[in-house]
């Protein structure tokens, strides 16, 4: 399992993983390992790759990252009795599963903490990131369950917390988790349907098109109407695995990071609703209907498409829904960047100096900067390229109808709309608007919009459209909760600290001192935005721990935990494509309209 580690490291860890870890032993191990890495590392990393950040910046980023490791492990296993673990984690199997994970997590967590204390140089950290992320992925692939969700959070760069090495290593977990044999899938379908599956499906693709933490997805064609569908099939026994895994992480936080316990209580409750696909199908149907009524979904010109569930074919372990034709958003955006790089290269080779300067200016603007171009700036660039495309096609038409008819002459190809760039800024704006509407207007929203659950449709036709899937974690707010959250969003957008604190108290926030500075920062990070100025240069988790140290949290508004998760996930996606946003400012127009219509202003 630790095959990706260097041999000496594997040996050291294997000798310690089943023994007590005294502080002197840990310190000796890490200092020895620190010296080994210093002597073994080839050359220091070239910081120019990351924009020439100085040593202080890199050191600060290391400190910000270390606690991002703690969601998967900690020293809790050595602090609790076997009887308590056995009862709390769901029996002997759960206990062994927990210890299996901690056999990697404990030494690696402590190693990261010690290297942070030692302020190790960059090339040591890079090597450690590479080794540990690979070992972590192997362990996740072995254990699966909720640990897959943890890896997906890393791949999605939740809270802008993880280095690119970790994001890239964990990326396969977004939709390429380990799968089960087709015989297992077939038996589950036929057990739930009580008949041969081919009485329902005319065609069923045996190889899955994707797999996630609790099940896998297959393409199929319905018998009768020939409708093209996708079929989600839940893995056997996965519910028990999830329950024990979530409690393992919560147990660690109770000892090491109590600030994260209240959110984990709500997240555990919400995750436990995923294990009935009939419920998910009904939730999908409700959200889809809400989006169609709001003209946010329904046709190719609307911002998003949401698949229609076949309710009569859904069971506890089988979900059948309309197939959306498209790729994962992250994959499509990567392909878009490559297309534009290829296009720019050809253009610079073909055209003269003036156009070269113009295109270089545009591409420089698109490639650099924390926030990138706005949606309007993207549209200006796209219109410029579209006009050039049309002119080129017109020239090609004239050429093909004249010179192109001559013997031996190759006709010119026409350039389709799919060659045009995708407006990345508009996609982020649309995602924020869609989920803001679900939360603030409908009070019924998907609490898990991670990148693996977002497709991009219509790219080949030149009409990009978001495809939103996976509604296992739908949260419903009461009218009172929804209107109060609208007020919190408006107060955050207006930067009204006193009003934010007053509304937080009304929502149920409680802390030891009720310090308004701490409360305000808690709300901004939780619901609005995260940037280095706000978090004082700290990793978001370190910053939240810092706030907890200043004023320990007793209660958080449980009803808004999943809304906070949506905000953090969408912000993480925005960071990834250089489209950082204030969620509160994006959602304020929606909130103002809701309160006005309800007579609350």
Automatic annotation (TrEMBL):
Protein kinase domain boundaries: 203-601
Record's keyword terms, sorted: Membrane, Transmembrane, Transmembrane helix
Domain of life: Eukaryota
Signal peptide (UniProt feature, chain positions): none
Pfam family, any one: ABC1
Mitochondrion recorded as keyword: no
Residue ranges crossing the lipid bilayer per the database entry: 65-85
Protein name: Protein kinase domain-containing protein
Organism for this UniProt entry: Cyclostephanos tholiformis
């Amino acid at each position: 399992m630790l095959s990706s580690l260097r041999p000496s490291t594997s040996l050291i860890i294997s000798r310690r993983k089943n023994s007590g870890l005294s502080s002197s032993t840990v310190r000796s191990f890490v200092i020895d390992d620190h010296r080994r890495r210093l002597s073994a590392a080839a050359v220091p990393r070239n910081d120019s790759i990351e924009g020439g950040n100085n040593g202080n910046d890199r050191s600060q980023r290391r400190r910000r990252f270390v606690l991002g490791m703690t969601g998967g492990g900690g020293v809790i296993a050595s602090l609790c009795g076997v009887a308590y673990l056995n009862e709390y984690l769901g029996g002997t199997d759960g206990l062994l599963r927990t210890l299996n994970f901690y056999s990697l997590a404990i030494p690696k967590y402590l190693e990261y903490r010690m290297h942070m204390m030692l302020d190790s140089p960059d090339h040591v950290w890079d090597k450690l990131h590479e080794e540990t992320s690979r070992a972590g992925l192997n362990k996740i692939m072995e254990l699966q369950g909720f640990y897959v969700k943890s890896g997906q959070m890393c791949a999605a760069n939740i809270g802008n917390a993880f280095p690119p090495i970790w994001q890239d290593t964990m990326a396969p977990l977004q939709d390429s988790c380990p799968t089960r044999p087709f015989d297992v899938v077939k038996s589950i379908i036929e057990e739930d349907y009580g008949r041969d599956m081919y009485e329902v499906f005319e065609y069923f693709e045996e190889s899955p098109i994707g797999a996630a933490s609790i099940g896998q997805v297959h393409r199929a064609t319905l018998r009768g109407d020939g409708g093209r569908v996708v079929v989600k099939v839940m893995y056997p026994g996965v519910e028990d695995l999830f329950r024990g895994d979530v409690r393992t992480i919560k147990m660690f936080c109770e000892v090491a990071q109590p600030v994260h316990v209240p959110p984990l209580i709500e997240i555990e409750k919400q995750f436990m609703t995923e294990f009935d696909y009939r419920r998910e199908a009904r939730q999908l149907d409700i959200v889809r209907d809400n989006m169609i009524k709001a003209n946010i979904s329904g046709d190719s010109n609307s911002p998003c498409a949401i698949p229609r569930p076949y309710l009569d074919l859904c069971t506890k372990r089988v979900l059948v829904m309309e197939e959306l034709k498209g790729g994962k958003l992250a994959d499509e955006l990567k392909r878009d960047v490559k297309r534009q790089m290829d296009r720019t290269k050809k253009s610079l080779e073909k055209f003269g100096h003036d156009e070269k300067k113009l295109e270089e200016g545009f591409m420089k603007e698109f490639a650099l900067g924390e926030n990138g171009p706005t949606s309007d700036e993207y549209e200006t660039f796209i219109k410029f390229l579209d006009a050039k495309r049309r002119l080129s096609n017109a020239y090609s038409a004239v050429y093909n109808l004249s010179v192109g008819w001559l013997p031996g002459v190759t006709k010119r190809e026409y350039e389709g709309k799919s060659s045009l760039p995708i407006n990345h800024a508009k996609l982020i704006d649309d995602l924020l608007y869609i989920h803001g509407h679900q939360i603030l207007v409908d009070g019924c929203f998907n609490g898990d919009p991670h990148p693996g659950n977002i497709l991009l449709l219509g790219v080949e036709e030149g009409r990009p459209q978001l495809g939103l899937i996976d509604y296992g974690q739908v949260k419903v707010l009461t009218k009172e909760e929804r209107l109060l959250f609208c007020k919190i969003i408006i107060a955050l957008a207006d930067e009204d600290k006193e009003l934010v604190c007053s509304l937080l108290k009304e929502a149920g926030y409680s802390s030891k001192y009720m310090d308004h500075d701490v409360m305000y920062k808690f709300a901004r990070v939780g619901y609005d935005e995260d940037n280095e100025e706000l978090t004082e240069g700290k990793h978001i988790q370190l910053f939240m721990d810092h706030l907890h140290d200043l004023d320990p949290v007793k209660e958080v508004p449980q009803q808004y935990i999943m809304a906070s998760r949506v905000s953090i996930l969408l912000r993480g996606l925005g960071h990834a494509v250089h489209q950082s946003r204030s969620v509160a400012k994006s959602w304020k127009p929606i909130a103002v309209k809701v309160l006005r219509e309800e007579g609350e202003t």
